[in-house]
Design brief:
The complex is a heterodimer of chains A (742) and B (157). By secondary structure, chain A is α+β, with helices and mostly antiparallel strands. Chain A is 26% helix and 25% strand. Among the domains of chain A are: 115 residues, Aldehyde Oxidoreductase, domain 3, CATH 3.90.1170; 344 residues, Aldehyde Oxidoreductase, domain 4. Chain B has five helices and five strands; from the N terminus they run E-E-H-E-E-E-H-H-H-H. The chains are: A alpha+beta (742), B alpha+beta (157). The complex binds FE2/S2 (inorganic) cluster (2 copies).
């Protein structure tokens, strides 16, 4: 008998019970007999030469078990895309590096390049002793001038900050389609402006933590929160010069990630300590350490020009954009690619010129954060088109309908939009939505006698699914079937990380569909490099899309063997979506993205003219998810992404000065509380199947964040007549803008 | 080493004695001393509410309470919310409404919501929102948490 599939049902997440009772174990909750405790010493200066590191006094402290520095790392380099950062900064001794490390001697030249650079890991019997010992380490630094402004960094006479990046540029993209200058000469209306978007901190509520030990088979093992078990494993093995199979990575419950756990934090140093001491070693970062110890969303400076005819046809777009990458690549080249692919929006524009660059500075490195360059690209694209709509006197929704992508529209990369483009449908669904009646006001501000102005704003956008620009995307799954006449048990093994987004529950639902089995008969083996192949990263809105391919592929292969009377069956499948390409360095021509997902939002705001305070009453979000694996969890993703987008738009001001962080606590770096939320977030789930993928599923988790800022900024303009070109739109910034105008 | 302080208290209905330093927080005592890791540390300075516990029925951030202050008090943590069998109604409603994602904030929200419903069994939405304003969640966007609490109280929203 055909079993009812779990696909499409709002089942309760499989980890929920443990989480509501406090039984779920996150890395910071783990303990082991004989466990030692570690602290990391950060450089806490933005740019300096390391003359000498003296650990003698710290080592002599009773209870200290070991102190490890860059000289102890067999291959002192790491990086998700390029190995361009030191695990810990070594001292410079007589012009030579401390013995034994780094394939690339020129790189690890004893230079601190940002305040979060690691200098040592200190292991002791207790955390308090480790902390005390840390304060006894003496480092002789020679401070160097810090470059923390991208415009300073690209000046021809600027100090060169990283030997790999001449001119202080990591990556440039250049896109040329048609003839922009000729098209601007013909355009009836031109919108030209400069934009600035600040950094954003992930602020997952669980700071970095981990427990490393030697497992029962003698393997170096770490339980940690990350986004890609097998990539963590590869980077640890690379730095410690170990064979891959001698490193095991396990993810227990993960307390949020949002891209912030995509690069290495505690993984390598903690493994080094456990290996050298042959003892379990645990570390927990404080909130402040987390704030300075991992990357941020890229700040971007952008100059944009958009031209249209008076009947509302976009004819030309020109972009000059620069991101602040910090001193190392992390994922800056990839983020820049996504910015480049989104900065003129999902519109049919025959003439496009884009120049973008990722610039090296002495700020904290920038890297992955939900949306991955698209929130920055789309803030510019969508604000430009909203300004154009006002200038043309055309309704912003109508202007989008006239210009938006359809299947086969030629993109700025001079290749067609992949099949399954539902943008027009998504725009309509959002625009035609009736406002929720009777929503209780949130009442977060009530200043007497002030003047309030109401307005609405609209935005839409697209996001590529998966790793792009020629990356060989893949995702693995193993399915084992046991039983006699009937399948009694299926064991489904895959690594994909559940960072809180509900991935593991989605895997169960997809497996139930693929195997026609009920929940009780499916056992999942998850997030452990020793039990499965790589799923790839929980990022880029790719995990559900890619793992669906892997699970369905492995299930099909296993069921075929089962039909052939094989008992038991064990089949492994690696899913590979259609390949993509790099883009041409001079023209930008190429086919860099597998497929896209689409989104539209409208925001209704009220502005307090006296204080510059903005309250969002209602936010409507229409999101094409292709096929809703679990509608309730999808709505949760939308609401959560909207709250992060709202923080990005209005609250989250990551302030640095000369490379030092001024907002390293939740008292100064404000993330939205319940009182900052819109009165209502209304989610509209659209299921327009993606023909490129599996079961019609599209990725979705990044999209609702990407366009909150342009929708709110348009609503503020609608209310007040003022455009704000800088994010976040703090009350302070808005008041300044209002003063200028009124 | 400073002299340790001996503290007698009641945690989740059980008498408990522990030794702590004079500067150790209740959160540290719970997590490191008593291995009760259900209460979470998100900030250690009173900004996030992940460490929420009840002290004589009052909602406190356990990172801001000293272990030594617990002498002769009754502490309730997330581990003591559920009955012997099954779940507390709040826990059940958090499941039904999908009011959690990563879940690191969840123990704090459930403890805080219990404190509210213990004194105000039928709060308005407005009251729930203001009461929970001291608990941060980075994942859910709060709406489902508010619904779960209101539903527990039998208040339709
Ligand atoms: S850990 Fe106590 S309030 Fe954040
Ligand atoms: S569910 Fe992750 S912080 Fe609330």
């Amino acid at each position: 008998m055909q079993q009812p599939s779990l696909l499409g049902q709002s089942i309760t997440r499989i980890d929920a019970r443990a989480k509501v009772t406090g039984q779920a174990h996150y890395p910071g909750d783990l303990t082991m007999p004989g466990m030692a405790h570690a602290k990391v010493l950060f450089a806490r200066r933005p740019h300096a030469r390391v003359r000498h590191i003296d650990i003698s006094a710290a080592l002599a402290l009773p209870g200290v078990l070991g102190i490890f520095t860059g000289a102890d790392v067999p291959n002192n380099e790491y990086g998700l895309v390029l190995f361009d950062a030191p695990v810990m900064v070594s001292e410079l001794e007589n012009g030579n590096l401390a013995a034994g490390n780094a394939q690339n001697l020129k790189l690890f030249d004893g230079i601190v390049r940002h305040i979060g650079e690691k200098m040592a890991i200190i292991v002791a019997e207790t955390e308090k002793i480790a902390e005390h010992a840390r304060s006894l380490i003496k480092i002789n630094y020679e401070d160097l001038p810090a470059i923390t402004d991208i415009h300073e960094a690209i000046k021809p006479d600027a100090p060169q900050l990283h030997p790999h990046y001449p001119g202080n540029v990591i990556q440039r993209y250049r896109v040329r389609r048609g003839d922009v200058e000729a098209a601007f000469a013909q355009a009836d209306v031109i919108i030209e402006d400069t934009y600035w978007m600040g950094a954003q901190e992930h602020a997952y509520l669980q700071p970095e933590a981990g427990l490393a030990y030697i497992d029962e088979t003698g393997r170096l093992t770490i339980q940690v929160a990350g986004q890609w078990t097998h990539e963590d494993q590869a980077q640890i093995a690379h730095a410690l010069k170990l064979p891959l199979d001698q490193v095991r990575v396990i993810y227990p419950a993960i307390g949020g990630a949002f891209g912030g756990r995509e690069d290495m934090s505690v993984q390598i140093v903690l493994c080094l300590a456990a290996q050298r001491l042959n003892r379990p070693v645990k570390i927990i970062w404080t909130r402040e350490e987390s704030m300075i110890g991992h990357h941020k969303r890229h700040p971007f400076w952008v100059h944009a020009k958009l031209g249209a005819t008076k009947d509302g046809k976009l004819v030309a777009a020109k972009i000059n954009g620069m991101s602040d990458a910090g001193p190392y690549n992390y994922t800056s080249n990839k983020v820049l690619g996504n910015f480049t692919g989104t900065c003129v929006g999902p519109y049919d524009i025959p003439n496009v010129a884009i120049d973008s660059a990722a610039v090296v500075t002495n700020n904290i490195p920038s890297g992955a954060f939900r949306g991955f360059g698209a929130p920055q690209g789309l803030f510019v694209a969508e604000t430009q088109i909203n300004k154009m709509a006002v200038a043309l006197g055309i309704d912003p929704v109508e202007l989008r309908r006239r210009n938006c992508w359809h299947d086969g529209t030629i993109t700025p990369f001079n290749t067609p939009v992949p099949p399954g483009c539902s943008l027009n449908e998504v725009i309509s669904a959002c625009a035609e939505n009736k406002k929720l009646e009777g929503a209780a006001p949130n009442a977060s501000f009530s200043i007497l006698n002030s003047k309030f102005a109401k307005g609405t704003g609209f935005a839409c956008g697209h996001k590529n699914i998966g790793f792009s620009f020629g990356y060989p995307e893949n995702s693995a799954c193993t399915v084992e079937l046991h039983g006699n006449s009937e399948i009694e048990q299926a064991i489904v093994s895959l690594a994909g990380a559940d960072c809180g987004q509900g991935a593991h529950t989605a895997f169960l639902q997809i497996a139930s569909e693929a195997l026609s089995l009920p929940r009780e008969k499916i056992e999942l083996q998850l997030s452990d490099t020793s039990t499965s192949g790589s799923s790839g990263s929980a990022s880029a809105s790719r995990l559900t899309y890619m793992t669906a391919g892997a699970i369905v592929g492995a299930a099909k292969a296993a069921l075929a063997k089962w039909q052939d009377e094989e008992r038991p069956v064990k089949m492994h499948h690696v899913y590979r979506p259609r390949p993509t390409t790099q883009i041409h360095p001079q023209t930008g021509e190429g086919d860099p993205n597998i497929t896209y997902a689409y989104i539209a939002q409208s925001a209704e705001v009220e502005v307090d003219i006296a204080t510059g305070q903005v309250h969002v009453h209602n936010l409507v979000c229409a999101d094409d998810v292709g096929r809703a694996v679990n509608p309730q969890q999808i709505v949760g993703q939308i609401e959560g992404a909207v709250s992060q987008g709202l923080g990005y738009a209005m609250l989250e001001n990551f302030v640095t000065e000369g490379g030092y962080v001024k907002t390293a606590h939740f008292s100064t770096y404000l993330i939205p509380s319940v009182l900052d939320m819109p009165d209502r977030v209304q989610s509209i789930i659209i299921e327009h199947p993606d023909p490129t993928g599996t079961l019609g599923i599209r990725g979705m988790a990044e999209l609702p964040l990407m366009i909150v800022a342009p929708a709110i900024v348009a609503a503020i303009h609608n209310a007040t007549g003022v455009w704000v070109n800088e994010l976040p739109v703090t009350p302070d910034r808005l008041r300044q803008a209002l003063k200028k105008q009124h | 080493m400073s002299k340790k302080i001996q503290v007698s208290t009641t945690i989740n209905g059980e008498p408990v004695e522990f030794l702590c330093e004079s500067n150790q927080s209740l959160l540290e005592v719970l997590r490191d001393g008593l291995n009760m890791t259900g209460s979470k540390e998100g900030c250690n300075n009173g900004n996030c509410g992940a460490c929420s516990v009840l002290m004589d029925g009052r909602l406190v951030n356990s990172c801001l309470v000293l272990g030594a202050e617990c002498e002769d008090t009754k502490i309730t943590t997330i581990e003591g919310i559920a009955p012997k069998e099954g779940l507390h109604p709040l826990q059940q409603k958090f499941l039904e409404h999908a009011a959690l994602q990563c879940g690191i904030c969840t123990p704090g929200f459930i403890v805080a919501a219990k404190a509210l419903l213990d004194t105000n069994p039928h709060p308005t939405e407005h009251e729930v929102r203001y009461w929970l304003a001291g608990n941060l969640c980075r994942c859910t966007g709060y709406d489902k948490i508010i619904r779960a609490v209101l539903d527990t109280a039998g208040v339709s929203s």
